[in-house]
Amino acid sequence: MRQGNLLYAQSGGVTAVINATACAVIQACRRKKVGVYAARNGIIGALREELFDLSNLDSAAIAALRHTPGGAFGSCRFKLKSQETDRAHYERLIAVLRAHDIRHFLYNGGNDSADTSLKIAQIARTLGYPLNVIGVPKTVDNDLPVTDSCPGFGSVAKYTAVSVVEASLDVASMHESSTKVFVMEVMGRHAGWIAAAAGLAGKRADEAPHVILFPEITFDEAAFLAKVKATVERVGWCTVVVSEGVKTAAGKFLAEAGTTDAFGHTQLGGVGPMIAQLVKNKLGYKFHWAVPDYLQRSARHVASKVDAEQAYAVGKAAVEYALAGKNGVMPVIRRVSTTPFKWNLVPTPLTKIANVEKKLPRNFISADGFGITPAARRYLEPLIRGEDAPPYDKISGLPKYVRPKLKLAKKKLAAYPLAEK
What we know:
Order of helices and strands: EHEHEHHEHEHEHEHEEEHEHHEEH
Radius of gyration: 22 Å
Number of domains: 2
Distance between the termini: 34 Å
Largest sheet: 5 strands, mixed
Structural class: alpha/beta
Strand content: 15-25%
CATH topology of the largest domain: Rossmann fold
Number of strands: 13
CATH class of the largest domain: Alpha Beta
């Protein structure tokens, strides 16, 4: 295979460190003297032939991506169906890659993105186009299988634990005559990794969070209310962390909105205020609730140093894999040891990753279902270690984030109408 050019694209919900991966990809390509493009808004941009030519991108701007949150090139939620159903999309994608002599494709995302990467690798073989496809791990949910952790998770975990510590100090100050129960909703549709990270905030008995509600544990209203009541009576106040994916005994999300996204996932929203209102209605306690939502995955100012390092490392490895001729694989993080914390990267077939969700192990959840175990703490703590603060502007006092000046490459094919899903 001739060397050709490389195309990088971001997919799904972005993270505080996904641009660190982008930075690594661009810098690695420059070192290897490989032409590099980035698709605008993920696979949508690739299909529309909207490719940013990064050949003249300022080196300082590239370096600044390492500490800038969001997705520098735009992301998307767009699912490629089977080759039979979406044949035209696949043929169009290969035509775009061929037109720009792109022989390496890196797709930076989670479960669904791994599935898309696998399908693209398969269609390239079917159509006889030489292409190395590398899936690049990213997801705050930490639910990719095989890999020890997912870039993006360590930073959202740190944000969550820090937020629980800080908000709980506030509640502790006010509980005598004001708020008795504070409820914080966190992301996690099917896996409770982020909710579990909240547990790092408390190391001793009766330290917040006092109650964690996991997607893996069926919601028991009576047991929950009894736990909250006992905590308030003993401690004086109670902090509750609830995952958006908590379900009833019937398997229905507590906060099901009745709609689905582009991947067919049930849209969720509002489980935090729902739980808070339940406490008010049944126990009569004054409450406050918070839903960090995008804040938890964009908080680069409190990013984990380990997470930022891992995000950069998978981008660098992805380029190296592609240029070495690897195809249909993902660089996954392997924990070598916990004490001291050591890790490395190994290539793993996408067939072992695509469409598989890694749930929080039951032995990470306390016997009563409302907290984390020492095993969970041993796993989680290394992932939030270290600070990797961005530089701050001395005048404004705000982080110095970059919005690179991007230029689209000249199109070579006819327009391809595509409705965003």
